[in-house]
Amino acid sequence: MSRDEIREIQDPLFARVNRSGKSRPQRASSGGSTGSGAPSGSGGDGGGGSSKWPYVLAGALVVTVGIFGYLFYLSQQRLEALNSELITSKTQLAQELQTSQDKIGTLQEGLSQSEAKIQEQRQQLGRYRGQVASLKNETEELKSEQKEQSRNLEVINLKKADREQVEQLEGQTQQIAQDVDQAKAGITDLRDTTARNQSAIDSNRADISKVGGRADSINSDLSAFKDSFAREIFKFELEKKGARMEVFDVSLGLRKTDVKKQRYNLEIFADGRKITKKNQHVNEPIKFYVEGAAKEYEVVVTKVGKDFVVGQLSVPKKGANANSSVSG
Q1: Mean pLDDT (whole number) for 109-126
Q2: Stretch 250-259: mean pLDDT
Q3: Cβ–Cβ < 8 Å for 234, 317
Q4: Which domain holds residue 216?
Q5: Do 254 and 136 fall into the same domain?
Q6: Could you tell me which residues are beta bridge partners of residue 270?
Q7: Which pTM was predicted?
Q8: Is residue 98 part of a domain?
Q9: Are 139 and 91 found together in one domain?
């Protein structure tokens, strides 16, 4: 306890001593003034005051000891209160520390769970990226397949014009194959007959040679027949407002288009002649003959636009046998 705190504590007895000590010099001064007036009386009063001083000092000493004892008691009480407050504060601090540790543990556990979730999300993101890349590859493959299908459709449209001729060629080819099979059967019969009769083989050698020549002639005719159907394709895109377009050795002019009905009007100029086709359907072949050509020419429009058409001109290949030429 500091001196200022001790000074602040006042005891009633100690206050009396202080008051008596403070009043004593006043009495002495008053005695002095009295002594100046009556010298004999001042000597008796001074002797009585000196005899009281030991008692006053003893009382002051007792009061001082009591005060110090009381102050020591108060100090002990204050110290015990401080110790109690210190223990309470330690307990509260320990509880708060334990609570903080529990919160830190909870936060660490939450952090671990968050890290695990982030890792799982990263793995899922990697899988999603792989799936996106796979989808991109599949999309590219689908686009390639669509392009291939578009090309196949164009080829099919190109082949529509010659389908009827191909069917006729197939029928004729089957007939020739039957003739060849019959010739082979005849050769087989002749061989069997030769095995049975050697002399008959010698007599029929001329017939066998004739049959072989016929087979060679049939094969040659078949090859020439196939070559006669070989054709060249010339694609074109014709505009209605444009001038006539030269396609191979003919000229084409577009006069009208009907997108809704997919029809068109076309003029064909060949050999100094003009051929007019009206209300012609899309993909419907237009056949005409040109002087000196072995087979007919064929125009097929595969697309009708607002002011244009797209199509192709099919002509027999050069070198095909021109057995006949028809004009009209």
Answers
A1: 88
A2: 96
A3: no
A4: 163-227
A5: no
A6: 273
A7: 0.33
A8: yes
A9: yes
Residues 84 and 6 in one domain: yes
CA–CA separation, 102 and 107 (whole Å): 9
Residue 301 has pLDDT above 90, yes or no: yes
Residues 111/114/119/124 CA torsion (nearest 10 deg) = 180
What was the pLDDT predicted at 166?
Answer: 66
Residue 246 covered by a domain: yes
Evaluated on CA atoms 202, 204, 210, 214, the torsion sign reads: negative
Largest CA distance in the chain: 212
What is the C-alpha to C-alpha distance for residues 191 and 269, in angstroms, rounded to an integer? 59
Alpha carbon distances (Å) from 48 to 41, 42, 45, 247, 280: 12, 10, 5, 163, 163
Number of domains in the chain: 3
In a domain, 37, yes or no: no
Kindly report, residue by residue over 140-195, the tens digit of the pLDDT: 887 888 888 778 777 776 666 567 666 777 787 788 888 778 877 888 877 777 77
Q: Do 74 and 95 lie in a common domain?
A: yes
Beta strand 308-316 with 231-239 is antiparallel
